Structures are given as structure tokens and as C-alpha cells.
């Protein structure tokens, strides 16, 4: 379902060139649960951003669900992002003035889904992520774990095939982190492809496939 | 994105940054209110002047002795020798013109008007029966001067309402006698109150037959002849006839001036309209300033809401959707400010109207349309740069820092 071939990502900082990714090739099947680990600066976030179509590789080819998406125009990328990909961030990134429910609704609003259908999906999502009692609360009235659950519900609202999480537990305590991982694993059980970037070996070990990045190169790729 | 969602989203933003919203609404509101109020004052002044001239009569041509070189400017500037007087016979000769409906010769002087031991100094008008029609005045009681040969006169007079109340108090005045100088006149009518018209208050005058005025002031010369043309279209023809008839009677000398009310009115109208436009335009500059404020606030908003914009893009918003969100916000601010401004402007206009009830303050339609339009156009224009900046924001960078 995902095929990366010879992905290079080079950042230019002044005269210097930073090779964030060097010749990365990677195949991911539908429904896989993988973790991406590696030292700081090894290119984990960069890889995730390219997978999520937020960033473009300098060279290489990216096929998503059988389509070459490397050269698509920006608006087309936005559409694919909206419909096929869900993001979960370390810092949740909820809109502070909107309620939990309104935050979850955002991707559906952007996609122009009609309000009745939105309502239906919202009720399902709120129930699925245990947020019914928090629907009308703003982010500053929610705990970190609740915020991340809202963020995951938001990522799931368009029924994506690919969930990308960049250190989703990085800002949570151990216990809450495990709860959030359990939620992401539920997404995997329901058939979604889940890729998690993490620094925590224990979290990384829960995944069925573990990718190791060092200096922009894949140095390990083991499946349990 | 659905339109209703776009509106709701913008409303949420406006509600989320209240002081910012209030500030822009205030700036926009003041701009629009200023345009409306200022142009209402200008338009009020214009209408006031137009009405003052209009109350003189319609299709009016005023004939006065002396040649004015620059038609339309203040007449009476004499070139060369003293002009020949205008006489009653000059006026009567105007009957020959087919373009003239009626005319009224006029003599004005100041007279000492007495009733018993009360007396007062008033302007005394000598004229003919047609005067009341030419000047479109109404009678409160009784009749105006009787028709007849203007060379001869009966000892009757018509008085202004204020003169009547000052000389007679509440007592009936019709049929009473008054003295002007050493002549006695019987009062046959009282003019309806009309107030000042071009600095000439008809409430305070006494009107006597032309021949009586000639005797009172010991002069043959007419002060003016008021001529009413048959129709608006006939005014130029009537004017030409007047000039020609009198020139023939004055041995070929063009020694009179005929001013048409239209010419004077048009000049005033032009000047005051231009003035209103100018002050309205100056007020509109404040809307431009409000536009710059919008731009600044929007630019700040782009920085403030970097993460949110980055997030929206990560969630699949297109650049166009981001721009649309910013423009919607700007238009809603402009509309809100314009509504506020129109309301405040209207209130201001009513307030000035209370203070000066004589002047018909009304914001001209173009100002009521142009002010909100300017508000919307400026705020949209000044949002182009911030909206583009927001749409071009790199989502990774925007989301990277906390
Ligand atoms: N926008 C950028 N401009 C310049 N250099 C960049 C940019 N983004 C990333 N880099 C560089 O690319 C390399 C990989 O960065 P990346 O953020 O992918 O690392 P990471 O593995 O996610 O690190 P961390 O664990 O600290 O999050 C780093 O050396 C980083 O400095
Ligand atoms: Mg990272």
C-alpha cells in the first residue's frame, strides 16, 4: 500500500547541506503496525512528514495505494491528506477556542461533509474514544491524555487508511501514554495502518514491525 | 468547505479574539459613521440652499437694472455710465413676449409704519397683484393686492404675519387702517407665515400697490421685475425676449441684467455637491486608515495563529480554504463595522437635525452605499497580503515549535 523508493531529503541551511534522509526505501502493507526509532536528528520526523505528504522528497518516488503521489500539486496533496491520512502530534495541536467536539469535527468541516453525517460520525467517535462527557469542553479543560484522545478521534474522523503519530506519548506520563497507545492499537486492530515515531524502547517494542533510523538511513527493519 | 461552516468558523475566530474584533469594528464604524454624518451635513446644506432658492418661485427670471458682465455672478456691477432706470412701462412691455406667463415689478424701501401710537420700521414692497403668484406665497387671511393698471393705485395694503401681531396684537386686522409716512392704507390681507427666504423675511413686510410705493419713495425706478416663464423650457426664450424688448425701449442699450433662478441654483448646486463629495472623500480616508489597521491585525493574526493554520493544512485544508477563511473574517468585520457605522452615523444625523431643524440633513444615497462598500473593499484589499502569507505557511514549520 505504501512504497518508498530511494527517498532523499536534503535541507539547505546557508551553505551547508543536511542529509535528513539518504536513499530510504520502504514498503508498508495495509494494516501494518510499525514503530520508527532512532537517535535524535536521525530523520524520523522527516520520514513521517514525507509519508504524510506534508513534505516532498528531493529525489525518490512515493506510491500511496498504487498511485504515484510524488509530483502531485499542493491542492491534490491536501485532498489526499484530508481523505486518507490522519496525524497525531506530540503537542496534540488542538485549536484552543474550539470544544473537543468542534476539534474532532474540523477535518470533516474542511472536507465539506454535510452536518447530519458529521453529527453521526461525531457520536460514534466520541463514544469510541470515551469522550462523551467531554464533548463540550475546551482543550484547557482537558487532561493531556484526553487531549491526545481528542486528537486521535480527529485523525480518525475521515476514516483514513494511514495513521501517523510523531511521539504521541512524548508529552504524557507513562500510564497515560500506555492508554493512548492502547487507543492507537485499537485503530490497528480495526484494520488501519499505524506508524508511530517514538524514543521510548518499550513503546517501540509493542509494534509488530520496528524500523530503526540512523543518520537518515534505515539500519534495522525487524518484524515480530 | 461549506459556506455556513466558513461563516461559523470566522465567527468563532472573531469571538475568540474579542478585543481585536472590537478594535476593528470600532475603527471601521468610526470611518463609516464619519462618511455618513459628514456627507449628510454637506447634503443638508445643499438642500437648504436649493430650497431657499426654490421658495422664490418656479421658472423665475429676475430682471434688474444695470449690466453685469459676468452672467451668473453677483449682478449690479456697472460698466460705464449709470444705467437707465427700469420703469413700469418697461415692465408692461414684457407682455409682448409669448414665453412669459406673468410678471411683477417691484420697488422696495423702508417705511415707518404706524397704527395709533404704535409704530415700527419695516421694509415696504410696492408691486402688483401678480406678485403673489410669481413668488408663490400664500395668504393667511383676506386678499392680496387687487389687479388693475399699475399706474394707478388704491389705498390698500397687505401685511406680513409678524407685522400684524406686532401692530395689532391678537385683534383682527382686516379692514383696519395703518399709516406709512403720510399715507393711509386699509389692510385687506395678511400673508401666510413663510419665514426667511434668502435673507428676506416675508413675515416682516408690508406690501402696497406699485404706484403708492412710487409716491411714498418718490421714485419712478423699479428695483426688480420678477418674471415667470411659461415653462421650464421657455426660460431661455423668455430671457432673450426680455433683453430684446428692453434693449429696444432703451435705445439699443443693453443695460439690464436678467438672471435665471436655474443658473444661480445650478452654480450653488455644483459647488455644494463638490464640497460634499470632498468632505465625504476626506472622511473616507479614515476608512483607508481602518483598512491598514485591518492589515496589521491580520498580519499579527497570521503569526498568532501559525500553529492553527499549520494544523488546518495538515488536516487537509487547501491554500484556497485558508485564504477564504481570512477573507470571510475580513468581510464580516467590514460588514459589522459598516452596520455599526451606519447606525451611529444615522443617530448623529438625527442629533444634528434636532439641533438645526431648518436644515434637511440626509445622508445622500451614494454615501450610504459608498461608505460600507469602501469599508468592505479596503478590508478585503488589505487582507490580500496576510491571507496569502497564511496560505503559503509551511505546515511543518508552523507546527514544529510549541
Ligand atoms: N526545516 C529544516 N531545515 C533544516 N534542517 C532540518 C529541517 N528539518 C529537519 N532538519 C534536520 O534534518 C535532520 C533530521 O531531522 P528530524 O526532525 O527528522 O529528526 P528526528 O529524528 O525527528 O529528531 P528528534 O528525535 O529530535 O525529533 C536533523 O539534522 C535536522 O536538524
Ligand atoms: Mg522528531
Order of helices and strands of chain A: EEEHEEHEHHHEHEHEE
CATH architecture type of chain A: 3-Layer(aba) Sandwich
Gyration radius of chain A, to the nearest Å?
17 Å
Number of helices of chain B: 12
What topology emerges from the helices and strands here?
The complex is a heterodimer of chains A (224) and B (402).
Chain A: E1 2-13, E2 16-28, E3 33-37, H1 44-51, E4 59-64, E5 67-68, H2 74-84, E6 85-88, H3 100-111, H4 115-128, H5 144-156, E7 162-166, H6 174-189, E8 193-197, H7 201-206, E9 209-214, E10 217-223
Parallel strand pairs in A: 3-8, 3-9, 6-7, 7-8
Antiparallel strand pairs in A: 1-2, 1-4, 4-5, 9-10
Helix pairs in contact in A: 3-4, 3-5, 5-6
Chain B: H1 3-16, H2 18-54, E1 60-65, H3 88-93, E2 100-115, E3 118-127, H4 131-134, E4 139-142, E5 156-159, H5 161-168, E6 177-180, E7 183-191, E8 196-197, E9 200-201, E10 206-209, H6 210-217, E11 224-229, H7 235-249, E12 256-260, H8 261-304, H9 306-314, H10 319-355, H11 365-391, H12 395-400
Parallel strand pairs in B: 3-10, 5-7
Antiparallel strand pairs in B: 1-11, 1-12, 2-3, 2-6, 2-11, 4-7, 5-10, 6-7, 8-9
Bound molecules: adenosine-5'-triphosphate (ATP) and magnesium ion.
Features:
heterodimer, A: 224 residues, alpha/beta, Rossmann fold, 6-stranded mixed beta sheet, 4-stranded antiparallel beta sheet, 10 strands, B: 402 residues, alpha+beta, 2 domains, two-stranded antiparallel ribbon
3D structure, described in words:
The complex is a heterodimer of chains A (224) and B (402). By secondary structure, chain A is α/β, with parallel strands linked by helices. Chain A is 36% helix and 29% strand. In chain A, β4 and β5 (67-68) form a beta hairpin. Chain A is globular, with a radius of gyration of 17 Å. In chain A, 46% of the residues are buried. Chain B is of the alpha+beta class. Chain B has two domains: 3-52 and 266-400, no CATH class; 102-231, no CATH class. The longest helix of chain B is centred in the last third of the chain and has 44 residues, at 261-304. In chain B, 41% of the residues are buried. Chains A and B meet through α2 and α3 of A and α1, α9, α10 and α12 of B. The complex binds adenosine-5'-triphosphate (ATP) and magnesium ion. Magnesium ion (MG) is lined by residues 44-45, 166 of chain A. Adenosine-5'-triphosphate (ATP) binds at residues 11, 13, 18, 20, 38, 40-46 of chain A.
